[in-house]
Amino acid sequence: MEGDLAVGRKEDPDVHLFPGERRKIIQPTSLRDPKLEKLKEVLLDWINSSLKVEHIVVQSLEEDLYDGLVLHHLLARLAGVRLPLEEIALSRSAQIHKLEQILRELEPTLGLREDEPVRWSVELIHQKDLLATLHLLVAMATRFQPELPLPADVQVEVLELQVSKNGIRSEVTTQVLTGPSSDSLSKSHGGDAVDRLLKQEAHKVDLVKKALINFVNQAMSPLGLQVADLDKQLEGFFLPLCHYSLTPVNHAEMLHNVTLALDLLSDLGLLTTPIDPQDVVSQDASATLRILLTLFRKHRGSQEPRGEGAQATTGGFPVPEL
User: Fold this and answer.
1) How many degrees, rounded to 5, is the angle at CA 105 between CA 99 and CA 107?
2) Long-range pairs, 297-306, Cβ under 8 A, ≥24
3) DSSP alpha helix (H) spans, 64-201
4) CA distance 306 to 315
5) Tally: H helices and E strands in the chain
6) Is the separation of the CB atoms in 99 and 128 below 8 Å?
7) What predicted TM-score, i.e. pTM, was given to this entire model?
């Protein structure tokens, strides 16, 4: 944090500008904003949890991403893109080259709009520019882990400096790092479509449910699945296809799918023993059996009520307690 404040000071003697150069510096008041601190904390935890299996620990967003090593591993882990680059780039030219290759592969996967400005660059990341680094990480988290609870409405005041033949021109602007939450958007518009629907008469809600069931069954018929009751059969969960990979082709997609499944089991109160998603992806028999037995108990128990002392079986074999 001390380094952030030093960089952010308007009178900082280390801020040297060359003719024609532009520099954007986060104002000290914004650096002390609890929302910004929380955003940095969430992003740091997300990076470390994503790279835990590779034993990579990031301690500073500014100091640990500039050489490309962490971004290289994130690209492979999250997007499944493995570039044939040297693991550790020592020289400045090697680091710049590595960042160029990484960003060239990464940016097309982020789903940026054509009219959306790219607020980072190879040079800025290598210069340990906190603002550019935050913009890049927020874009990556939004694309690859949309459920990550990034703090909403994070904005920073930025001092923009530019050197010309007439001197230094300065301007203070505001940059948005994260947008408003879905809750605040719903409140500002008097609730979303579902909120307004549920305020209608019961028969109108039932008509919409029937239309949705028809839609779901048409979509699921190629898979041999059919829904008769939205409330009971979906068990409170709706999973958009964008949240998981139907046909995972790399380790990152497999790990994401398994992590999502384990999170859902935990939310249902079914997962009594912690299971590492990496163990399942690595085909660990113990972890896989625990999940299958958990699912068996859930669905066998709902289909066949048992009397006191009865024991569940699979093909005549008793199911052990977990």
Assistant:
1) 90
2) 297/270, 297/322, 298/268, 298/270
3) 69-79, 92-106, 122-126, 130-144, 182-188, 193-198
4) 16
5) 14, 5
6) no
7) 0.55
